[in-house]
Amino acid sequence: MTVFALILAIVAGFAAQRGSICAVAAVRELVIDRKAQRYVAFFECAAWSLALLTAARAFGISPSAAPQDYAPGLIVAFGGALFGAGAFLNGACTFGSAARLGRGEVAFAAMPAGFVLGVMMAAQLAQAPSPRALTGDPASSDIAVMGLVFFVGFQLFRLSDAVSGPRDAIARLAEPVWRPSLAMGVIGLTSALLMIFFAPWPYSKLLTDLGVSAGSDQALLKIALAIAFVVGAAIGAHTRGVFKFVAPSPRDAAEKAAAGALMGAGSYFAQGGNDSMVLVGLPHFFVYAVIAYLSMTATIAAIVFVAVRPR
């Protein structure tokens, strides 16, 4: 089972690299270029994850650990904003950091270290939101199921219209650059499988757990999964022909570590980074995740609008 989990993490990292997945880049495109394709792909990712998890439950298969809901509030919004500010300063979110590290930008290796440190510091200063009991599964409602059926049907129709056969499908997967919707679809499905067979999965959740309980029994496995995600991104970069080793300067490494600390602290208060929000919170219709994600998006958008927009 461990080998299967590592393979899935590698596939997710590969897809993140091929699709150039990054929330900071997505919001930047949304604000500056008025292009929503990359941003919408994050919600498609959540829908694919939800669809597979719902199908698994229909056959009596539940995630290896039940997802935890948290009370929505200002602390969650603060965490989302803090994570968004850190991601902007870092130049990439958790997805994007792994992709750029996989491309050879070694300075981004300092981000996970800073992330874990930020979690540890936040845990010393304040208490994280406490999980609350689940009152039901909104994803199992008739409206949610009907929406998922429509979504999957529409996506399959769009796929059949774009791909003529198995050879064409293989050729599309062999392309050096994937459409964001394809990459996020692969990430959503692999993430759902990881949550079914191994939990917790999302990259930021792994780092957050390491910061809170570095001595846990599963610490080594969590580290291995995080590394496997980056390995997948590196494989994607090599096969895409974009790998280039870039030695980090002390200043770059310090900046990534500091930005990672902000992201880690934000993840502690928001109970996960943008990947956890998209892959766990949103698919389960958790209000706290919606608040955190919108707060993160608004923060990045505000900073982009003020600092990056054309004069």
Write up this protein:
This protein is mainly alpha-helical and 311 residues long. The protein has 14 helices and two strands; from the N terminus they run αααβαααβαααααααα. It has one domain. The mean pLDDT is 85. It is 71% helix and 1% strand. Helix 1 runs parallel beside helix 11 and helix 4 crosses helix 14.
Give a quick summary of the entry:
The protein has one domain.
Task: Describe the SSE topology.
Elements: H1 2-18, H2 23-33, H3 37-58, E1 69-70, H4 74-90, H5 94-102, H6 110-125, E2 131-132, H7 142-162, H8 166-174, H9 180-197, H10 203-212, H11 219-240, H12 250-270, H13 274-281, H14 287-307
Helix pairs in contact: 1-5, 1-9, 1-11, 2-3, 2-14, 3-7, 3-9, 4-12, 4-14, 5-11, 6-10, 6-12, 10-11, 13-14
H/I helix tally = 14
Topology pattern, helix = H, strand = E: HHHEHHHEHHHHHHHH
Q: Specify the structural class.
A: mainly alpha
Q: Strand share of the residues?
A: under 5%
Mind summarizing the main beta sheet? 2 strands, antiparallel
The amount of helix comes to: over 70%
| Domain tally | 1
Low-confidence blocks of residues = none
**What best-fitting shape do the alpha-carbon axes yield?**
globular
Strand order of the largest sheet: 1-2
**In angstroms, what is the radius of gyration?**
18 Å
